[in-house]
Design goal:
This protein has 68 residues and is mainly alpha-helical. It has one domain (9-67): Erythroid Transcription Factor GATA-1, subunit A (Erythroid Transcription Factor GATA-1, Chain A). 47% of the residues lie in helices and 9% in strands. It is built from two helices and two strands. It has helices at residues 33-49, 53-67, and strands spanning 9-11, 18-20. A two-stranded antiparallel sheet has the order 1-2. Strand 1 (9-11) and strand 2 form a beta hairpin. It is rod-shaped. The chain binds zinc ion. The site of zinc ion (ZN) has 8 residues, from loops. Zinc ion is lined by residues 12, 14-15, 17, 30-32, 35.
């Protein structure tokens, strides 16, 4: 009889693959570096969708140069 090894597994948020929750897995809860980067990339895209005031100020500055 072999003793059962309890390994906690989680689903990779990007590809939904089962990932073993191990201390050596530096990308957890992701299965690999690629999935982690994809998820981070999506977060950055979400933030860029929100219009910032800096963009408006920059536009006004360019307009000033145009009329001179
Ligand atoms: Zn994955």
């Amino acid at each position: 009889m072999s003793s059962p090894i309890n390994i906690l597994t989680v689903k990779c948020p990007t590809c939904k693959r089962q990932v073993a929750w191990l201390p050596e897995n530096e990308f957890k809860p992701f299965c690999c570096e690629r999935c982690r980067l994809i998820d981070l990339g999506e977060w950055i895209m979400e933030e860029k969708r929100i219009p910032g005031e800096a963009i408006d100020l920059d536009f006004e500055d360019n307009e000033d140069h145009f009329f001179q």
